[in-house]
């Protein structure tokens, strides 16, 4: 499963997918993020009551969609990347804190005019912490 993570251009401290748990090309991907108190963003969000920023929950789900896209939509040409292009219907249901294991489940919906749409949900202990519809675009590096 490590080969899946090599598909992402992200690296520490911004790589937010620790492991791919399950995958079916063109359909879905399940991945995990183990949330550690040592994450650098917890120093300021929030001192004494660390909470994973919601935008980073969305980013973790977007990275999971990136892996699914790389494996499903086709091989990238040199100089191409999948860029996060949009988000709709994002909802945060409960906080994610150090010690949590966050599972991201993303499903492929469709590709149209260069945009690929995914549904994503993040869970901790089987409970939804975030859900959203995300889009990514295949594009040449800027």
From TrEMBL:
Q: Name one GO molecular function term.
A: (3R)-hydroxyacyl-[acyl-carrier-protein] dehydratase activity
- E.C. number, please? 4.2.1.59
Q: Which InterPro entries match?
A: FabA_FabZ (IPR013114), FabZ (IPR010084), HotDog_dom_sf (IPR029069)
At the top level of its lineage, which domain of life is listed?
A: Bacteria
Reaction(s) catalysed by this chain, per the record, are: a (3R)-hydroxyacyl-[ACP] = a (2E)-enoyl-[ACP] + H2O
CC terms in the record's Gene Ontology section: cytoplasm; membrane
The positions flagged as active site in the entry are 45
Report the principal subcellular site: cytoplasm
What top-level class of enzyme does the UniProt entry assign? lyase
Q: Which residues form a coiled coil?
A: none
Q: Among its keywords, does the record have Cytoplasm?
A: yes
Query: Does the keyword section mention Cell inner membrane?
Result: no
- Name the keywords, alphabetized: Cytoplasm, Lipid A biosynthesis, Lipid biosynthesis, Lipid metabolism, Lyase
Any single GO BP term:
fatty acid biosynthetic process
Location of this chain's protein in the cell: Cytoplasm
Protein purpose: Involved in unsaturated fatty acids biosynthesis. Catalyzes the dehydration of short chain beta-hydroxyacyl-ACPs and long chain saturated and unsaturated beta-hydroxyacyl-ACPs.
Give the UniProt family note: Belongs to the thioester dehydratase family. FabZ subfamily.
Listed name of the protein: 3-hydroxyacyl-[acyl-carrier-protein] dehydratase FabZ
UniProt organism field: Salmonella enterica I
Coding gene?
SBOV01971
């Amino acid at each position: 499963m490590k080969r899946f993570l090599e598909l992402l251009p992200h690296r520490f401290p911004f790589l937010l997918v620790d492991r791919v748990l399950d995958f079916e090309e063109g359909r879905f991907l399940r991945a995990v993020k183990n949330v550690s108190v040592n994450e650098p963003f917890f120093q300021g969000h929030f001192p004494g009551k660390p909470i994973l920023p919601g935008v980073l929950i969305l980013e973790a789900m977007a990275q999971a969609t990136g892996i699914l896209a790389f494996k499903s939509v086709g091989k990238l040409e040199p100089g191409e990347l999948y860029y996060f292009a949009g988000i709709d219907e994002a909802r945060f249901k409960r906080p994610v804190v150090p010690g949590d294991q966050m599972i991201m489940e993303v499903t492929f919906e469709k590709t149209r005019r260069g945009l690929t749409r995914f549904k994503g949900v993040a869970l901790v202990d089987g409970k939804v912490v975030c859900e959203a519809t995300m889009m990514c675009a295949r594009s040449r590096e800027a």
